[in-house]
Amino acid sequence: MLDENYEYDHDRETEDEGDTDEELSREELILRTGQVISRNSKHLIHCLDIIGQVEGHYVLPSKQKSTKYEHIIPALVAIEQDRSIEGLIMILNTVGGDVEAGLAIAELIAGMKTPTVSLVVGGGHSIGVPLAVSAKYSFIVPSATMTIHPVRMNGLVLGVPQTFSYFEKMQDRIVRFVTSNSRITEEKFRELLMKTGELTMDMGTVVEGETAVEIGLIDSMGSLSDAIEKLYQLIESEPSGRYPDDRENE
Predict the structure, then answer these.
(1) Which terminus has fewer CB within 10 Å in the chain: N or C?
(2) Are residues 162 and 235 in the same domain?
(3) What is the value of pTM for the model shown?
(4) Active-site pick, 118, 134, 138, 149
(5) Across all residues in the chain, what is the average pLDDT?
(6) pLDDT at 110 over 90
(7) How would residue 6 be classed by pLDDT, with cut points 50, 70 and 90?
(8) CA gyration radius for the chain?
């Protein structure tokens, strides 16, 4: 009898330790990468936040909030191949950052089979615009803004035709991506890019939440509950699953 009780208590203790380890790993995930997986929910979804400045090939100062692309890219790969994760919600409050790193992340999100929804809160500025529209459906809160401006580069820039050609090609990449992943036209987007008189020391436009929806940059106005509800709809509208063999495994 004592042995049975000991066995029972030991099993329960092991189970409790497992729950504790899971909670610790979840907290560690939030602290290190700002990501969390919602397990006790209608559908298993992964929350990914892009905050501060998108860090690319150069390390930003330690006191500056940043989103590291070497954290985001492996996370996206893991989410896409993990069949237990049914959807991805992306929360954006970013000032922009490294253009190529941000565009790389946006391209990966746009190419995912996993249902994705983005929500812009605070701001989705600069390279945050392609990131916001990369999801299958995008939301913006009424108080949020998005800054659209031409590509800029810090540091030494050579005043030669090749430099301006590079800028133009980079800008074209962004324009193509945004217009192909949203309802805004290329003419309207370029007009916002080249607008003068609105930004103090730059060309471009600051677009508020309602206007972003009106011009077709963002799909809908809404907040967290709206984004989650839409993500659930996208998940439930996929009867055949993400992969060809999902039906065979049922």
Answers:
(1) N
(2) yes
(3) 0.80
(4) 149
(5) 83
(6) yes
(7) very low
(8) 21
